[in-house]
Amino acid sequence: MASFNKVILLGNLTRDPETRVTANGNTICKLGMAVSRVYSTKDGERREETTFVDIDAFGKQAEVITKYMRKGRPLMVEGRLKLDQWETNDGQKRSKLGVVLENFQFVGGRDDNDSSSASSSSAAGYEQSSPPKRVSKPATSNDFSADGDTLDEDVPF
After folding, report:
1. Rounded to the nearest 5 degrees, what angle is found at the Cα of 12, between the Cα atoms of 8 and 17?
2. Over the stretch 107-120, which tens digit does the pLDDT of each residue have?
């Protein structure tokens, strides 16, 4: 039986990323995202439906997201669905569907409130009026995939 597990989400963070480092040095980042859908009913009434999604990121990606993302900022996430199941202390079975981040892309420009680092980032070639450019290349040292866990340090994002 064939199967395919891929999720692409574009939304805003509902809270600041929460980061932990395990005893063996692995970085784990938990973040929440709100994804909205606007639609019209049969009567022509415009409605908005918001879905809240929990996302887990690991390794260098977790570190980069923690460094640059804050509550309310937009982010595009590619990942896979994962079902977590557990039993509570009183014996009830619980489950939650979440997303494991495999790739991400920053969306939008830098915050106006972040003026302290604006001068240093413009020296690196970042213009506040334009979002970061995504360059398609074969997997190299700046690949953000779960397999290639490194980042080119002179790129601000």
Report:
1. 95
2. 987 765 554 444 33
Domains and CATH numbers, the chain: 7-109 (2.40.50.140)
Q: Are 111 and 89 in contact (CB under 8 A)?
A: no
DSSP 35: E
CA distance 69 to 66: 6
Which stretches of 22-142 are assigned E, i.e. beta strand? 27-40, 46-58, 74-87, 93-106
- In degrees, rounded to 5, the angle at the alpha carbon of residue 139 between the alpha carbons of residues 138 and 141 is 125
Q: What is the pLDDT of residues 71-106, one digit of tens each?
A: 999 999 999 999 999 999 999 999 999 999 999 999
Q: What is this structure's pTM? A: 0.67
Cβ 30 vs Cβ 72: under 8 Å: no
Structure tokens at 110: 């830098």
